[in-house]
Specification:
Helix content: 40-55%
Low-confidence stretches: 1-53
Largest sheet: 6 strands, mixed
Shape: globular
Distance between the termini: 116 Å
Number of helices: 14
CATH class of the largest domain: Alpha Beta
CATH architecture of the largest domain: 3-Layer(aba) Sandwich
Order of helices and strands: HEEEHEHEHEHEHHEEHEEHEHHEHHH
CATH superfamily of the largest domain: Nitrogenase molybdenum iron protein domain
Radius of gyration: 30 Å
């Protein structure tokens, strides 16, 4: 009995030791596994979203380039005209220290954002006055895709982000990316603008998509009268024409500001002609005998396009107003409650923090500068 007890005790001891070794091994494996699992997520955010470090954060711009931008941005060089208004809407207009804009090119932007007067006009479409840019020590620069200004800005060591949009979806992405770059408040403002744009697109298309294709008027957008240049398909111009319930009369050609002959316009015979923002020469068309056979001229449907803090019709934030103005112009009976003056006043208050008077809103709609 004693020998049997000793054998059982010895066997139990061996099993216990074996069990302890197995558990110790498992514990060791689990510890290593947990350490590896914890290390991986910690490393990943630092690689993809280094916003918690002093180095800044890395974003992907419209050209697909990886650009590291500062986490805190206090000064901005903006070489894309349309983007100056985007930055202003996102609450950072006072941070623009170098710009491509002038009080003459966008007088309403300087009216609603007087801090723009402190910015140096250091860019043209093709050249940058880098000495002037560097004096103001910008934390970041913005430029449009393909701009010749990108290289000199990067050569000067300024983080340069390229942006572009040719339709409403891309516009929304431009707002999101700029908001992400400029910080939490800017992203909140971007989301607010996008919600407004989406809401207006939905409201208008809910009406205009019901219009039979055969009943939609042909709309021609003219950007230059001398030489004659129009906007075709694959453009934001065609985007807003279609949203507003029209058909682009020039949709057989592709791109912006394409040269055409008067004979071609007569052959298209548009029902409406919109003269591009910044041009105020409707009388030239209305009084010229060569245009008299065009339906738009015969019926008095030739309009100057509105122009505010930026051009309503060409790749700017106020395209959100353009779709409403165009829909009301093309189909006034379908939008009896849409008051463009009041909508403009509301837009400027909400997004540009400026109290327009009704008279000022009308000046913008008529594509006229502010009264000093």
């Amino acid at each position: 009995m004693q020998r049997r007890f000793k054998k059982k005790s010895l066997l139990a001891l061996i099993l216990s030791v074996a069990l302890i070794l197995v558990l110790a091994g498992c514990g060791s494996n689990n510890t290593n596994g947990n350490t590896g699992t914890a290390a991986s997520p910690a490393a990943s955010p630092q690689a993809t979203s280094p916003t918690t470090t002093d180095a800044g954060k890395t974003i992907t711009d419209t050209d697909g380039r990886q650009v590291t931008v500062p986490s805190q941005i206090n000064t901005i060089a903006d070489a894309w005209p349309a983007h100056n208004e985007v930055v202003t809407i996102l609450g950072a207009g006072g941070k623009i220290v170098s710009t491509i804009s002038t009080p003459k090119s966008v007088p309403w932007l300087y009216k609603v954002n007087p801090q723009m007067k402190n910015a140096v006009t250091a860019f043209t479409k093709s050249e940058a006055q880098m000495e002037e840019v560097l004096k103001n020590k910008p934390d970041i620069a913005f430029a449009s895709t393909g701009s010749p200004l990108i290289q000199p800005l990067e050569n000067a060591g300024i983080p340069t982000v390229t942006l572009n949009f040719t339709n409403f979806d891309e516009m929304k992405e431009c707002f999101r990316l700029t908001g992400d770059i400029l910080g939490e408040d800017a992203r909140t403002r971007a989301d607010s603008f996008i919600s407004y744009l989406d809401g207006k697109l939905e409201q208008i298309t809910a009406v205009t998509f019901k219009i039979p294709e055969s009943d939609k008027p042909k709309v021609l957008h003219i950007q230059s009268l001398s030489p004659l240049q129009v906007d075709g398909k694959d453009t934001m111009i065609q985007n807003w024409i279609e949203v507003a319930g029209g058909v682009n009369a020039a949709q057989e050609i592709s791109g912006n500001m394409k040269p055409v002959s008067l004979e071609q316009i007569v052959a298209w015979n548009p029902d409406y002609i919109m003269i591009g923002s910044g041009l105020t020469d409707t009388d030239h068309i209305m009084d010229d005998p060569a245009w008299k056979t065009v339906n738009a001229v015969k019926n008095g449907h030739v309009y100057n396009n509105p122009s505010g803090a930026f051009l309503w019709d060409r790749y700017g934030a106020e395209a959100a107003l353009q779709i409403q103005w165009a829909a009301k112009t093309l189909h006034p009976d379908l939008f009896p409650d849409l008051n463009i003056v009041q909508e403009t006043v509301s837009f400027y208050k909400q997004f540009l923090n400026y109290d327009l008077t009704n008279d000022e809103a009308q000046l913008i709609i008529d594509s006229k500068p502010p009264v000093e």
